[in-house]
Amino acid sequence: MSERIEVKKTYKLFIGGAFPRSESGRTYEIFAPDGSFIANPSLASRKDLRDAVVAARAAHAGWTAATAYNRGQILYRIAEMLEGRADQFAREIASLEGINEQDALQEVHSAIDQWVWYAGWSDKLSSIAGSTNQVSGPFYNFTIPEAMGVVAAIAPESPSLLGLVNAIAPIIVSGNTTIVLASTRSPLPAITFAEVLATSDLPHGVINILTGNKSELTPWFASHMDINGLDISGLEDSQMVNDVKIAGADNLKRIHSFHESASPQRILSFMEAKTIWHPIGI
Amino acid sequence: MTTFDYAPALESRSIVTIDPSYGHFVNGRFIEGKNHFASINPSNEEVLSQIALAGSADVDLAVKAARGAYEITWSVMPGRERGKYLYRIARIMQERAREFAVLETLDNGKPIRESRDIDIPLAAAHFFYHAGWADKLDYVGLGQSPRPHGVAGQIIPWNFPLLMLAWKVAPALAAGNTVVLKPAESTSLTALLFAQVCQQAELPAGVVNIITGNGSTGALLVDHPGVDKIAFTGSTEVGKAIARAIAPTKKKATLELGGKAANIIFDDAPIDEAVEGIVNGIFFNQGHVCCAGSRLLLQENIAEQTIEALKVRMAKIRVGNPLDKNTDLGAINSAEQLSKIESLSASGDDEGVHRWSPPCELPAKGYWFPPTIFTGVTQANRIAREEIFGPVLSILTFRTPAEAIEKANNTPYGLSAGIWSEKGSRILWAAQQLRAGVIWANTFNKFDPASPFGGYKESGWGREGGRHGLSAYLLSNENGEEK
Amino acid sequence: MNQNTVVDGSEKSLLNFLGNLSGVDQTGANARAAMLGTRSIKTSSKAKAIDLAISMVDLTTLEGADTPEKVRALCSKAVRPDPSDPTVPSAGAICVYNDMVGIARNHLDSIGGSHIPVAAVATAFPAGRASMEVKLQDTTDALAAGAGEIDMVIDRGAFLSGRYMKVFSEIQQIRALCAHNAHLKVILETGELTTYDNVRKASFLAMLAGADFIKTSTGKISPAATPPVVLVMLEAVRDFHTMTGVRIGVKPAGGIRNTKDAIKQLVLVNETAGPEWLTPTLFRIGASALLNDLLMQRMKLRDGFYPSPTYVTID
Fold first, then answer.
1. Taking the domains of chain C in order of start, what are their residue ranges?
2. Which residues, numbered 237 to 266 in chain C, qualify as contacts with chain B under a Cβ-Cβ cut-off of 8 Å?
3. Which of C1, C20, C25 to probe by mutation at the B interface, max B CB count within 10 Å?
4. Which of A246, C24, C55, C221 is 20 to 30 A from B60 via CA?
5. B4 vs C278: CB contact, 8 Å cut-off?
């Protein structure tokens, strides 16, 4: 009996709930630390970004209108589905990043726990970040945090899965939609994660995942006028950070980067405070 | 028919003393400026005083004074004591309220009724409100012992000179920062009077420094390496330039920028109050208001009657001498602003939109523009898209609530919006849909120190007022801090 | 369009009309009235306003203890408010209870005050809690005694319980009785209507039913003629004029005690209904103590120093 030949996966982009190849037709090669070839993921172009922003914008109205309870359940469901495939992710991460499977599994578990942690925040944001304001006059006045719109993220190079989750979970829990650029070096767990999302309850377009060249795509993220906010925690190069901030000023993008992986500040940085006045009278 | 003309009721200007020229207020005392420019009363083009133009040496001196005061006194002083200084300032502002009001009106051109009843009392209220925060910073929501940034560089506009100063200075000081403030080129006088208030309050030297000048002075302040935090209110264009300028630095910024607010009138609105709200929305402070309700969206079935009612109401607007206690609409702040308003209004004429103003006699001298509406405006017209910052209202109509929201949100700005309806659920629905930081429902242009103010999208970064505004002047010690 | 075509007299059309009136936001109305209260009326405009206010005063006494002597004194004062100064205009009217109408009419006629009408409070003033027969008789008596103006009260109980047609019909019946011989002022008693929405609704109800004037209050209930209530009523007469071309008068009564209050009322008229209403045929102020304050302020403007109350006559 001959040895069975493994069916290998084709890694594509994740845009609007679908898995298209890059419109440019480009791919790039991913090798394991031992130099063996692993896959040819898509090398996304600026037009793929453009399409992803359109998908994210289209998804925003529905996602932000969903009840916080519903969003929390959907985030929790992502955690459930990741849990079921934890070993698969661990193997993929281990082979890509050259770490042992035990450490890789630890990373996957952290990613799962992040989804659970952020899921629980969905319906508590206005109680910590909102207020009723005692104005001097016959008015009821209150402030609520509200999702910003389309908030993109540049994920760190590693940890490939956890870094991605740290970026997108706080963005979407509040009702934002997102486009995330995965680790350039280790993009495969991001696309495998997209397969989890595709079969979860997450509406299409809420999370869009691109793979490709960070230095090529980041400037397009920064200058895109329909992106409201940008998490650049994954950018290391200080010149690139400066360039992003300068380009982002054209539409006054809210650009942030964070030390911590689990913080309500990561959520609130991509929310707007909306204050509403109404007279009190009979 | 009997007519009831109101005889001139001029507020006396004898209460104010204006020096022929002013220097900068640095480290607790006034220092001479080298170059000067004139500050003009826009209602009659009278030169009020010569204002010093700060150059890099002055900016440097002011920032160093602020840094010194931050390190030696202000950051180590218990919040309780800082708060007492703010209370003192608030009290002195109240005591000298009439003086501030008259000076503001002379320098800015706004009606004395507004400076007396709105600008000055609200400015004092901001100091009172923030005074109480100074020893309660642990409760702002940033965890235990949040830290001030250090030196705040603050640049304010000419539309509410003292009030914008209060919005900036009060929270900065309460949080433990020291400040270098630059008032707008055309309206420095109340800031300089405020410097005297700081002296009377015996505020430690260097905690508040005021340097006067133009945009170049502002740029020097933004670029100064000794400044940790920028707070700016002004045009979106300058706001973006500031965002670019601080990109390579660790400086944080709050930006309160332009707007093109929609004021939406549904057919079940309380119509008389809505008409008042329209008038207050666009003609308050000559329309020199970033959150002005400059786009009126009228539900189609009440459009005609509402425009008629608005015209009747507009005919009652009293335009003239800002020092007259019965004046409703004062002077345009500068020749430059007047020509901008004139040119944008002319674009409305060129695009075939119908312009209307009530008959009103404008003074011969000074900078004046009548209350003006444009009817039949579409989203494509320049006057519906660009901020005019003057008493000019663009009127559009809508048929369905969804259309109203779509039009209201169809702008890169997102500062404020108005909703008029007697139906609670519709108000809450519209408030939820509108992409703006301040929503006034069945009211407009209301401000309060406890109420956060600031915009979405290209209307700026951050909030001013309330707990939200205060936290912009603090850094958290907890995990989760930004890089 | 005249007022008769606004509603056709049926309950359905009345309810439909009242139901479609726009609401009044209390905070907004209060703010507008307060802003107009800041108008500073000085020198020549103050002098003019004082004379105008004097000519609009419905000099009123509505006490159980009223005597013929007091009513005659009031009449004399209405004709010549300041005996030492003939340039002071006469007051708008004398307003008394039914039984004093004849006394007032006769006295006015005998002292050269035949141009001053006597207003009678009628229809079971102030509560209006009587049968329609009594209300009609009350009005008939007043008219017979020479009343040129009838100040009727509405049935607030009926209004508040939603029986608008009853209120409408009562006004119509009194209107018919007054015919062309007497002006009809309809007292809404706004202090009992509790909301500005109701004030607006009651104003239109009264106008549609044939009121010549809508009047705020009986003077027996507080709050009475507050500036925002008068503002809402002035907006109603302005809108009614736009609809029908007919100008209805407004009479605030109760709580207007000094010149400052009175001038605030005139500012409200000027900037709400418009200067067309600045005439005693369209605006009256129901008051008693007010007149003396107006006279004292007038003396101050004329003489340049403050007078003593002993220089004006007590009622």
1. 3-41+118-300
2. 242, 266
3. C25
4. A246
5. yes
Distance CA B455, CA B468 (A): 13
Active site residue C151: yes
In chain C, pLDDT over 90 holds for what percent of residues?
A: 94
Say if pTM beats, i.e. exceeds, 0.90. yes
Strand duo A271-279 + A139-147: pairing: antiparallel
CA distance A23 to A15: 12
Reading across the β-sheet that carries C249-251, which strands appear in turn?
Answer: C249-251, C213-215, C183-187, C149-153, C118-122, C93-97, C57-60, C285-287
Asked if C27 and A138 come within 8 Å (Cβ–Cβ), the reply is yes
The SS3 of residue B429 is: helix
Three-state secondary structure along A33-68? CCCCEEECCECCCHHHHHHHHHHHHHHHHHHHHCCH
Domains in chain A, CATH or no CATH each: 30-279 (3.40.605.10)
Token duo for residue A55: 């998908």
Domains and CATH numbers, chain B: 24-257+459-475 (3.40.605.10), 262-449 (3.40.309.10)
d(CA C246, CA C238): 9
**Which stretches of B347-425 are assigned E, i.e. beta strand?**
354-356, 372-375, 392-398, 416-420
Look at C23 and B277 and tell me if their CB atoms are within 8 Å.
Answer: no
Q: Which residue of B has its CA nearest to A282?
A: B422
What gap in Å lies between CA C127 and CA A279, rounded to an integer? 33
Alpha carbon of C173 to those of A275, B451, C167, C182, C240: distances in Å?
A: 53, 54, 10, 13, 21
Which residue type sits at B131?
Answer: A
Chain A, nearest residue to B248 by Cα: A242
B263-302 exposure pattern, b = at least 16 Cβ within 10 A, e = fewer: bbbbebbbbbbbbbbbbbbbbbbbbbbbbbbbbbbbbeeb
Q: Which run of H or of E encompasses C63?
A: none
| Known catalytic membership, residue B290 | yes
Residue type, A110: S
Which residues in chain B have Cβ-Cβ distances shorter than 8 Å to A252? Answer: 236, 239-240, 243, 255, 257, 457-458, 460-461
Specify the pairing of strand B416-420 against strand B354-356: unpaired
Show residues of chain B in contact with A251, CB under 8 Å: 412, 457-458
- The token pair at B9 is 């009721």
Distances (CA, A) of B476 to A2, B67, B137, B145, B481: 63, 21, 10, 8, 6
Who among B9, B272, B325 is closest to C24 (CB)?
B272
Cβ contact B332:B338 at 8 Å: yes
Lookup: tokens for B69: 């005061």
Do C278 and B272 make contact, defined as CB atoms within 8 angstroms? no
Taking only the tens place, the pLDDT of each residue in A112-146 is: 999 999 999 999 999 999 999 999 999 999 999 99
Homologous superfamily in CATH for domain C3-41+118-300: Aldolase class I (3.20.20.70)
* Alpha-carbon distance C35 to nearest alpha carbon in chain B (angstroms): 9
Instruction: Kindly report, residue by residue over C214-252, the tens digit of the pLDDT.
Output: 999 999 999 999 999 999 999 999 999 999 999 999 999
CB contact under 8 A, A279 and C25: yes
Q: Report ipTM for this prediction.
A: 0.97
Q: Is the peptide bond before A159 cis (omega within 30 degrees of 0)?
A: yes
C300 vs C309: CA distance, rounded Å: 12
Q: How many C-beta atoms surround the C-beta of residue A254 within 10 A?
A: 21
Question: Which residue, among C32, C79, C85, has the nearest Cα to C303 in the 3D structure?
Answer: C85
